Automatic annotation (TrEMBL):
InterPro entries in the record: Biofilm_reg_signaling, EAL_dom, EAL_sf, GGDEF_dom, Nucleotide_cyclase, PAS, PAS-like_dom_sf, PAS_fold_3
Protein name (record): EAL domain-containing protein
Keyword Nucleotide-binding tagged: no
Source species taxonomy: Bacteria, Bacillati, Actinomycetota, Actinomycetes, Kitasatosporales
Domain GGDEF: 506-644
Annotated TM spans: 21-40, 46-68, 80-100, 112-133, 140-166, 186-204, 216-236, 285-307, 319-339
Pfam families, alphabetized: EAL (PF00563), GGDEF (PF00990), PAS_3 (PF08447)
Keywords associated with the record: Membrane, Transmembrane, Transmembrane helix
Length: 941
């Protein structure tokens, strides 16, 4: 099959050109044979074609071989040069012959110059054939080659002498011919015998390089020698005339020799040789004939002697001497062969023992399978590798010990391997599972080679390697703590769910889950307990999803679940079903956890996103992540479904954050102030600084809008520093302009402890702008649980020593307010606007607000109500004992120009003005007088 493939792979034009040249050669030879057969039509033409035609053919062969030898660089170059010389001799002899017969019109004398050329034809050809012969590797090989040549030549000489040469010699002696003519009569057949001997010897010993060209050259020389032998026979030589049919053989032999180096393509030769190697069917005919050569030679000698005896003649001394020499050469050759065989047998036994030791001592299992798949040899290593004795496996069909699931891939690979050319694919590797003696399946890797029509398998157990690879793959795709799939495997599962036949199933959903309060567990109970909580949460998650769904841990306290769609077309029902699954997961994950003997609670915020047509796994997971963050922002411990506006909001916030990074440096921020009004008199007691951002698009953003997207802490710190310095600077300018009113600046607890606001920076800021420390109030914003109360208390105490007053912002909202009131040095309580909004409508809220104001009054603190938007709220708060308020009922945040106009006016109208329940401050700016909570009258912010 590979030889056919090689032939088919050649260009069609190349094959057609080769066929045309062969056809042309055959037509020319056939035309010459037909012309010779009919006598060429006239005697003159016959003589011309028989002499100069043969000379031209030999000259063509000489030129062809010479040109090829000049272009070739192989070791066969001398042989083609010798063939060129031999053909030139033949061309010269035929030219001399034609000179006598055609030009001079007289018989060719004997001997003549033509005989010299013809006698010189054989020696170069004989030497050229020796060059083409496979060179022996040792001295004994050269001796055997010489003996083989003598055996062939001697046997042919014996037979030829008995048949014709003896008669020719006697006739020459009887007729009184000269010694030269008698020697010439015997020289032609003897040289032909030598040439035939070399042709036969070379046939069994020729080299494999460019074999087709060599075979064609040998065929041409053999045809020439055959015609010479027929010419030297007494019967044909006496009746021979130039231009007869015998000349056609010499003509064809010369043209074959001319065609040999060019007409046969090497690629075709190699392809045929490859095809023979694939079939593995190179028959040992050549080797058998070579071994029979001595016996055939002896048989030919015997026939020569028997012919003389049967003919009633006494055996000629030449026959007896030649026969004895042949027999002696036969004995010597057999002795050499016997010694050589003994040496080869010893070497073979030694190598066999060596390789047997290697095979038996190898840890790999070596098996030989026939073409039918039956094992006919198994090395002893099978007992240690497969747990089965080698004898038990011999005779077993190979497919019977291979796992059924692996048979298809194994057969496919073996068929592909056997169909490929051996030189291109000398071996292949297959990996499958073999049945062991215990019945278990072992992972086996085998190197497969061709072996005498079957397969040679070198196998080894790689079960441990496969187990390690599976473990590494598992570790790379699973979370080491919970053993759930990690982000990479989860993403692959999502891609698999969105692809294939499920690509249009919009019921597939992804759930992103975040454990609310997990960080507090780590901080309070410890990280080891936190890990145990994650393990238990993963177990609950795994048990809550279906078998064909996927639960994964993405990192930290974030989990995910892939809910595979069931193909239902009712989208509403599918969304309801997935929402029910998410709610069940939320309730399950929010149940108390028992860790180290104590009960720990966390909540779960879950975001759900459904697959859409043509959505990518990355986008689907992003949508679920956005929904999860919306659930956390909406109060946590809830389930949120993804909506397209979530992505739009993220894009808007991202763009806003990008512009916000340069807003401070570009001067896009403005500082507004909202008056803080005394509820009893309506006078302005202080102003609260508030930042506003007017973007390059002309949009005015409030702090609640831009601080939420400030992004990193560096931008927030930069904005806070700008706001504090701007507020102090403007307050100092107002004081110098005759409006000495205190200013309050809202600062978060984390910002107060930030290294960007070092100790002494506030004092340096007040000194630089000439503002008394009592004119500055710091509103401590919502307390971050990550901030230490001890550090915050120390920081606030240091600020109060400078004269800076402290207000607790957002009082009444958050679990840390009471603790802050107990530990922090607070001068003013600022009620959260959530308390003020419903203080008129809700009797319950009225009582709560009244109680808080009573606590502030009992502690000697000022109180400020934030978000007083109506006169009824101002009246109710004043009746409860609240001293100050800020809100739309008096004035919203105003710029510096409007603020100074309000300060110049001095007061705002207060609805229902009258005595308060407990007046504390008449208004204006009053410096700080004392240090304790109950001694210091502090103007409100």
């Amino acid at each position: 099959m590979s030889a056919l493939a090689a032939l088919l792979s050649k260009p069609v034009s190349g094959r057609r050109a080769g066929l045309r040249s062969q056809l042309l050669l055959a037509l020319v030879c056939a035309a010459y044979a037909v012309g010779a057969g009919i006598g060429w039509g006239s005697t003159g033409v016959a003589l011309f074609m028989g002499d100069f035609g043969l000379s031209l053919a030999a000259l063509i062969a000489a030129v062809s071989c010479f040109v090829y030898a000049r272009r070739s660089d192989s070791r066969l170059r001398p042989a083609w040069l010798l063939f060129s010389l031999s053909s030139a001799m033949a061309a010269g002899g035929n030219a001399v012959w034609g000179w006598y017969e055609v030009v001079l019109s007289r018989p060719v004398p004997s001997p003549s110059l033509a005989d010299l050329f013809f006698l010189c034809f054989a020696p170069p050809a004989i030497v050229g054939l020796l060059v083409l012969a496979k060179r022996p590797v040792n001295r004994a090989g050269w001796v055997c080659l010489a003996l083989d040549a003598w055996l062939i030549g001697g046997s042919l000489l014996t037979l030829s002498w008995s048949l014709a040469l003896a008669h020719t010699a006697h006739m020459a002696n009887a007729e009184g011919e000269s010694v030269a003519r008698a020697a010439l009569s015997l020289a032609y057949p003897l040289l032909d015998i030598v040439l035939v001997s070399m042709v036969l010897a070379l046939h069994f010993r020729r080299i494999s390089v460019n074999r087709s060209a060599v075979n064609t050259a040998i065929a041409g020389l053999a045809l020439t020698v055959l015609c010479d032998a027929l010419f030297t026979s007494p019967l044909l030589r006496s009746a021979y005339r130039s231009g007869q049919l015998l000349d056609a053989g010499w003509f064809a032999g010369s043209l074959l020799l001319a065609y040999a180096p060019w007409g046969v393509r090497r690629g075709l030769d190699n392809a045929v040789r490859t095809g023979r190697a694939v079939r593995g069917a190179s028959r040992p005919i050549t080797g058998s004939l070579a071994a029979l050569t001595p016996y055939l030679a002896a048989a030919v000698c015997t026939l020569g002697i028997l012919y003389s005896v049967v003919d009633g003649r006494r055996p000629d001394r030449v026959v007896i001497v030649t026969g004895c020499a042949v027999v002696l050469a036969l004995v010597v050759r057999q002795a050499i062969m016997l010694l050589d065989n003994i040496t080869l047998t010893q070497e073979l036994a030694q190598k066999e023992n060596h390789f047997r030791s290697l095979v038996q001592g190898s840890s790999d299992v070596i098996m030989i399978a026939e073409s039918t798949g039956v094992l006919r040899y198994v090395s002893p290593a099978a007992a240690g590798v497969y747990g089965r004795a080698a004898e038990d496996l011999v005779g077993t069909e190979l497919p019977s010990i291979i796992h059924p699931d692996d048979l298809g891939p194994v057969f496919h690979e073996v068929r592909r391997f056997l169909a490929a050319p051996p030189r291109e694919v000398p071996s292949t590797r297959i990996e499958c599972r073999f049945r062991s003696g215990t019945g278990a399946w072992l992972h086996v890797e085998s190197t497969v080679n061709r072996h005498q029509g079957g397969l040679l398998l070198n196998s080894r157990d790689v079960s441990e390697r496969v187990r390690l690879q599976e473990q590494l793959r598992h570790n790379a795709e699973h979370d080491p703590l919970t053993d759930l799939p990690n982000r990479a495997l989860f993403t692959a599962r999502v891609a698999q769910a969105l692809g294939g036949r499920r690509s249009g199933d919009q019921g597939t959903a992804v759930l992103f889950i975040d454990l609310d309060g997990f960080k507090a567990v780590n901080d309070s109970v410890g990280h080891q307990a936190g890990d145990e909580l994650l393990v238990q949460a993963a177990r609950r998650l795994q048990e809550s999803v279906r078998a064909w769904d996927t639960a994964a841990r993405l990192g930290g306290d974030e989990f995910a679940a892939l809910i595979v769609g069931d193909g239902t077309r009712d989208q509403a029902a599918r969304e309801y079903q997935v929402h029910e699954i998410a709610e069940r997961l939320r309730l399950t994950l929010s149940q108390p956890y028992r860790i180290n003997g104590q009960e720990v609670r966390v909540a779960a915020s879950i975001g759900v996103a459904f697959a859409e047509p043509a959505i990518t796994p990355k986008d689907l997971m992003r949508n679920a992540d956005l929904a999860m963050y919306r659930a956390k922002a909406g109060g946590k411990d809830r389930v949120e479904l993804y909506a397209p506006q979530m992505q739009a909001e993220v894009v808007r916030r991202s763009e806003l954050a990008a512009r916000l990074r340069t807003a401070v440096r570009d001067g896009e921020f403005a500082l507004l102030h909202q008056p803080v009004v005394h509820l009893a008199s309506g006078t302005v007691a202080a102003v609260a600084a508030q930042a506003r951002w007017r973007s390059s698009q002309g949009i005015l953003f409030t702090p609640a809008e831009f601080l939420r997207v400030a992004g990193d802490s560096d931008r927030a710190a930069e904005l806070g520093s700008w706001m504090l310095e701007e507020a102090v600077e403007q307050a100092a300018d107002r004081a110098r302009a005759g409006h000495p009113v205190s200013v309050s600046v809202r600062v978060s607890a984390g910002r107060l402890l930030d290294r960007a606001l070092p100790r002494g920076s506030v004092e340096a800021l007040l000194t630089r702008h000439g503002l008394p420390s009592g004119a500055l109030m710091i509103e401590v914003a919502d307390h971050d649980p990550r901030v230490s109360f001890d550090d915050l208390e120390q920081r606030l105490v240091a600020l109060r020593r400078l004269g800076v007053r402290i207000a607790l912002d957002g009082f009444g909202n958050g679990y840390a307010a009471v603790n802050a009131l107990r530990r922090l040095p607070v001068d003013v309580l600022k009620l959260d606007r959530n308390l003020v909004d419903g203080v008129v409508e809700s009797a319950r809220l009225h009582k709560i607000t009244s109680g808080l104001l009573r606590i502030a009054c009992d502690l000697g603190m000022q109180s400020v109500a934030d978000g007083v938007d109506g006169p009824e709220q101002a009246r109710a708060l004043r009746a409860m004992g609240c001293t100050h308020g800020q809100g739309a009922a008096f004035s919203g945040p105003v710029d510096e120009y409007r603020l100074r106009r309000a300060l110049a006016r001095g007061r705002f109208p207060v609805a229902g003005g009258g005595p308060t329940a407990r007046p504390v401050l008449a208004g204006g700016w009053i410096p700080l007088q004392g240090r304790s909570h109950d001694e210091t009258p502090v103007p409100p912010t």
